[in-house]
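Obj.: predict assembly geometry.
Materials: sequence records (below).
Method: joint structure prediction, all chains together.
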Amino acid sequence: MDLVVINLIDGLFYGLLLFMLSSGLTLIFSMMGVLNFAHASFYMLGAYFAYQISQYIGFWPGLLFAPILVGIGGALIERYGLRRVHQYGHVPELIFTFGLALLIEELVKFFWGNNLMPYREPEILKFVLFSVGSNAVPAYKIFMIFTSMAIFLALLYVLTRTRIGMIIQAALSFPRTVEALGHNVPLVFMGVFGVGTALAGVAGVLAGPVLGTFPGMAFVLGSIVFVTIVIGGLGSLWGALVASLLLGWLTTFAASSSFAFSTLLEGIGMVRPEDMDESMLRDLWTLTLPQIGPILPYILMILILVLRPYGLFGKRDV
Amino acid sequence: MTDTTQKDTAIAAGSGITLGRALPWIIVSLFLLVLPWIFGSNSAITIMNQMMITVVFALSYNMLLGQGGMLSFGHAVYMGVGGFMVMHIMNLIEDYSLPVPMPLLPVFGGLFGLGLATIVGSFSTRRAGTVFAMISLGIGELIAACSIIIVAFFGGEEGIKGDRTYGLPVFGVEFLQQKEVYFVIAGWTVLATLLMYLFSRTPVGRMANAVRDNPERAEFLGYSARWVRFYSFCAAGFFAGVAGGLFAINYEILTEQNLNTVQSGVILLIAFLGGVGFFFGPIIGAVVFTLLQSVLSLQSEIWQLYVGALFVATVMFFPGGLAGVLMMHVPAWRLGKLGSLVVPYIKTVIPAMIGILGLAALMELVFHARHAAAGEDEITLFWTTFDGFSVLPWALASIACVGGIWIARATAPGLRAAWHRANTPDRRPAA
Amino acid sequence: MLKMTRLGVAAALALSVSATAVFAENIKIAFIDPLSGPFATTGTNGLAEYQFAADYFVNQKGGVGGRNFEIVGFDNKMDGKESLINLQVAIDQGVHYVVQGNSSGIAHAITDAVNKHNKRNPDSRVLFLNYSAVDPALTNEACNFWHFRFDANADIKMDALTDVIAANADIKKVYVIGQDYSFGKAVADAAVKMLGEKRSDVEIVGNELHPIGKVKDFTPYARKIVASGADAVITGNWGSDMVGLGKAIIEAGFTGPIYTYYAASNGITGTFGEAGVGKINLVSEGSLNPSANADVDAYVDAFEAKFPDHDIAQPRIANVVRMLAMAIEKAGDADDVVAVAKALEGMEADNFWGGKLMMRPQDHQIIQDVYVMQQAAGVKHKLDNSDYGLETAVKVENASADIATTCQMERP
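Observations (raw structure tokens):
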């Protein structure tokens, strides 16, 4: 029972981290119709910038300035890169972000090298807040959970309750009309791209100390973010939230379970082979759920795409 | 982008084989035949083998992306599975002394690639666009993960090994040497390229283009967009499997790295770099990329940074890829004005190249200053060795960088004007 | 057009491949390991250690028979195919000695390719000096005459680790976790088998594999470990999987020792920092703290002075260079690799890091002292430019000198 409670907390933590990435990505997608492959790279940049800033003036300024820097970088890339490629069509756009992801990783290696960065949480949050059974829950994780929830609420408020949010929503569906009404749609696009990447930056600043700050951190998380927004339904903020939490709990519980496939095989009436080395199915007999945990999201995504291509909450086709 | 290829086929449709159309193929085949005598060293041959395998793979990838408009993030899976199958067959030949000549093996690779593509294609090709791309990503991740878990077939991360020399000798050749393998791969490359070229000329191949450009209109014409995509997908799977078979023969080992997502990303990069709008684009991409990978990585530690920058620059400025750049000159050539571009090119491109090399030199200097061992001040750049911490090289590189780019910018309008002139037909003087 | 590109390409090829193959007087050693990509740190660190060792032990003493050692770095990008291309280029450049260590998978590819090459091309044979790939199979069923291993293999290391665990009466429950591939499985199997033999009362409360390089958050695994009530953890993880797992375990409130193979240097020691002190245990050869003698201190200090960003993370590299030089000296001709291999076979020498070295003739596995070390603060030779380093806790002399082997090699 203790384990279930602690897994719920850990899953929430991981799910909300995913959400901070996928919310920006899903906004960008619904706006420009392009999947930003470099989104996780902005997450990585957030972590590295914050590390560098924390070397000089501490963790908290890093939390503030690193996402702003990342957002400015994102807006510039939209203005001078993506907008240019946009005229060639969607596939070159996607490939551009793909190349960008590659380039950002190489640049990070160029400036910071290949090593792990000793980027740590602030001393003030370095204590055990409470324990469930013998398992400790660090204060930093709870801080992270509340920060990301606050961001979600703020985002929701801006999008649904403010004038800017209305313009963004309108620009998503009817860009021409909004432009005719005298709004600067390219500027809106640039702004949304900047904010989306800044959100990824926040995620990086917060996750860097927990999940490690190294050049591969974007690649590790990259494709799972797409999976999240595809499952949630492209362009849907609620979908992104639900899918993020779903994946967070799915991977957490899968990793902490000890379910073995041999029970399943025996359940359907198969007999455990005497000599494992001779059996072609020997790997199935020794397989456990934690072993395939990280690929469960992909299976889920394929099923969703085949059965319900607009995702859980999406209104339109992918 | 595809104007020129379109025209070719309009003329070609229905007519028989003419010398003019067969000539490029004959020349290329002859060229491939004499190549090993020009570059006889084993390493040159190994790199050429790698190039040809990549050519087949990249062309097969372009059947999806360039010709069918399907963006795949998991194409390496078909190459990998084909290769693994060939490796297993190779081991069966060794264990049971089966009388199978080794050069035939890629066919089996192709068939297994085809088989897997048929299964996956049956549900993934229902939609194009993002749905297809995401399913391909999911399948790619899935099979790559399986390749580590299912040791019985994939051999874990060590992969599986074989020995190609146990096949039936072909005219006494047992394929002990790289050179002998070279000819097998060269033969298969020409054959597979020819077949893929012919496929793009068949009604299915033509319809793939139509479905790529406008699926609705193709449906109105009575073609099922889905089936057209499915056929292209299966054919691409077959040729990817052939490439896998060639890989198995050349390297005698296959690992999980052959089918993981990195490999799938690399082939996307190669195809796009070469140019997806033209049949021969991926060939250029494969050759250039293999060279970059094998040669540049011997020269520079930050070669991947250059490749990434090159790729992003290609997407931004030359979305037609290297092939697109080449084909841009065809109109001027037809007008007989290609010569008029030479001088403006020299004025702009050479300073630009100097500028870029200067920038690269600066990057190398920065990298050296940050990462070199203490006391190891010497750095070798462009075949000269000097002290990396003295002012002169930094100044030279900066001047080359800034100056080159400045000159290139200054002369760019001239080039643009010359380009415009070269592409406008001369008006007949008014009578 | 196509012709043109091919021609240009061919010209570039000829230039780049042949331009480097000029110097004949140096004895070239091809270093094939990742110098770019996610594993580049280990590779560049290893290359620095080789270059330093070659200068220190051979070139500054006038070389071997008047010839210097030259380490030629090849970037295999941690890819099997690239490694084989590198091997071919190296052989064309007249290299007779290949060193590689990162990833047993690639070591398998290279040892197989070297074996085939030597069979097919008797006039350009090469030796494969494996300094770090520890899959036991390489000196058992997959062994061959051309392969020599200078690191203790996974079984030998586990033997030492389980000795330490068996001697610790406080440890009653052990959790085994590792990456889901051949090495992770080999570690797990060896741990279960040896613990069973040495301390049948120790309970294995968990034996688990996780996907390699795919886990973003190790917390759920750490929760299970803590909940199982384990007193100690054994893992073969490396790279970011090691850091992720280690940090998650410590953060979850685990207080016992974590026994590892590769939890040091390359930023790992620095990242663990204070949290790792006394908890991170590592089995390795070559003790830096305390060092065996003043020579060792001088060597390490000289290395750190020259490469401040690198560490002596693989002390065995010094032994590779020294033993190769001795074998070439004995054989008399660096180009006669069969003679050099025969000289290496069964060679006994002093270990630079203290103790003795013996290259077992039957399987080409080196026998040396193995240490279990602990992360500690304020030691003499630190890692990662941090305040932390490794301190020897237990020394196992000539570890597993009589370990069984199934190796049956064909000798020329």
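Conclusions so far: Chain B touches chain A at residues 65, 69, 71, 123, 126-127, 129-131, 133-135, 137-139, 141-142, 145, 149-153, 261, 265, 268-269, 272, 302, 304-305, 307-309, 311-312, 314-316, 319, 363, 367, 370-371 (CB under 8 Å).
To do: check interface contacts against the pulldown list.
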